[in-house]
Amino acid sequence: MNKSKPNILHIKHSIQNISEAELLQRCLGEDRNAQWILFNRYASVMLGICNRYANNAQEAEDMMQEGFVCVFNKLGQFRREASLKTWITRIMINTSINYLKRHHKVKWDHDMDAVANDLEYSNEQLLSYDVKVVMTCMQNMPDGYRMVINLFAIEGYSHKEIADMLGIKEATSRSQYAKAKAYLQKQLVKNGIVYKAQ
Fold first, then answer.
1. CA terminus-to-terminus distance, the chain
2. Residue 108 belongs to what H/E stretch?
3. Backbone angles phi, psi at 165, to 5 degrees
4. Which domains does the chain have, with CATH numbers?
5. Which pLDDT tens digit goes with each residue over 50-100?
6. Which phi and psi (to 5°) does residue 177 adopt?
7. pLDDT tier at 1 (50, 70, 90 boundaries)?
8. CB of 101 within 8 A of CB of 147?
């Protein structure tokens, strides 16, 4: 790979003009400028995804860096069955999950007792709340809660798919999701985002 510093002005211009097909071809040819273009084109979105799984900003940065290493290592496997953004997103999600498994002892809480039954928001409402507050609440969750609520409520995976991804039972995924919503409900009430029914 060319070790010289990329021409930043050229990169900024190219971001707006290069097609995805050409970008992929150049990246596969180990064109460092093209690799920087790909990184800069998707970095902010992917960092946002990693932030939803991470405990803090530094973890999110680490997840994203690991994710992009994986992206470039596996780029030759991209078959264009989905968009490049979707393909990279899947890698970031898997990288984030593997990072948490590797660096944290994830506890899977099977107990459904004390799960709130008066949850006052849907998944669509969750996405409409103040992003910074919701992100802070989610980062304070136990890792198991956070992974499942992200995968189910935001990414749209089924509990069966989540169980397969995380190596847990489908019932465990359901209980984690219910408890994650109850946890988030309490935090949103505490922050004045939603109000508990009287």
1. 64
2. none
3. -65, -40
4. 8-103 (1.10.1740.10), 123-190 (1.10.10.10)
5. 999 999 999 999 999 999 999 999 999 998 888 999 999 999 999 999 999
6. -65, -45
7. very low
8. no
